[in-house]
């Protein structure tokens, strides 16, 4: 049973600044002390409620190494949401966001929904990037910005809530068609039922609503 309105495919990328720890904190409420480099792709999932919708999230944690770039681009093309993470205590990781953003757009187009995350907000005395300049960059990317800490869990849940709400707003405004398979969205049973209830009973025999099902094959390495 697809007990949700929509399934959103998202991916999270950075350059070794704690994105995997953010995902682990979000899915399992745990923090990984030992640093582990993502090899290929890792995966997490969760279900949240946003604006009376039940949303299932698939979150793909992608490696930053060049050797995985061709494989990773396939995941970019099958996603609707992108989480770009940088380290608040490492200015180079912030400057690298422009390169990551360009790569994402080259694979997905301008419809991809983006949120920038400044990780390690618990280390305020070591920060090298100010909130205002990160907010300005997020505006250039037509996205949102939030600061979080994978260590303490501060604002980690909010990252995914904000991105989900952002995607829903685009759907409700008509800018994104959830039935179009180019977007990383699947329609669940709750949404099918809701749409059928909108159609008057007298018209249901003459109205057909079709929901194409994606046949994507996902592989985690």
TrEMBL record:
<dbReference type="GO" id="GO:0003924">
    <property type="term" value="F:GTPase activity"/>
</dbReference>
<protein>
    <submittedName>
        <fullName>Uncharacterized protein</fullName>
    </submittedName>
</protein>
<comment type="similarity">
    <text>Belongs to the small GTPase superfamily. Rab family.</text>
</comment>
<dbReference type="Pfam" id="PF00071">
    <property type="entry name" value="Ras"/>
</dbReference>
<dbReference type="GO" id="GO:0005525">
    <property type="term" value="F:GTP binding"/>
</dbReference>
<dbReference type="GO" id="GO:0012505">
    <property type="term" value="C:endomembrane system"/>
</dbReference>
<keyword id="KW-0472">Membrane</keyword>
<dbReference type="InterPro" id="IPR005225">
    <property type="entry name" value="Small_GTP-bd"/>
</dbReference>
<keyword id="KW-0547">Nucleotide-binding</keyword>
<dbReference type="InterPro" id="IPR001806">
    <property type="entry name" value="Small_GTPase"/>
</dbReference>
<dbReference type="InterPro" id="IPR050209">
    <property type="entry name" value="Rab_GTPases_membrane_traffic"/>
</dbReference>
């Amino acid at each position: 049973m697809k007990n949700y309105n929509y399934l959103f495919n998202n991916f999270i990328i950075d350059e070794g600044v704690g994105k995997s720890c953010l995902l682990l904190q979000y899915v399992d409420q745990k923090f990984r002390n030992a640093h582990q480099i993502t090899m290929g792709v890792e995966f997490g999932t969760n279900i949240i409620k946003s604006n009376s919708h039940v949303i299932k999230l698939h979150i793909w944690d992608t490696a930053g190494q060049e050797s995985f770039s061709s494989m990773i681009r396939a995941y970019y093309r099958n996603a609707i949401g992108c989480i770009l993470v940088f380290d608040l205590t490492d200015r180079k990781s912030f400057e690298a966001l422009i390169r990551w953003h360009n790569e994402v757009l080259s694979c997905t187009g301008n419809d991809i929904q983006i949120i920038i995350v400044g990780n390690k907000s618990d280390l305020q005395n070591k920060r090298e990037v100010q909130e205002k300049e990160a907010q300005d960059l997020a505006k250039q990317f037509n996205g949102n910005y939030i600061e979080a800490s994978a260590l303490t869990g501060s604002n980690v849940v909010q990252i995914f809530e904000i991105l989900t709400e952002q995607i829903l707003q685009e759907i409700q405004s008509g800018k994104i068609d959830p039935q179009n398979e180019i977007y990383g969205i699947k329609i669940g049973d709750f949404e099918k039922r809701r749409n059928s209830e909108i159609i008057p009973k007298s018209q249901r025999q003459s109205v057909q609503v079709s929901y194409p099902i994606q046949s994507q094959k996902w592989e985690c390495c």
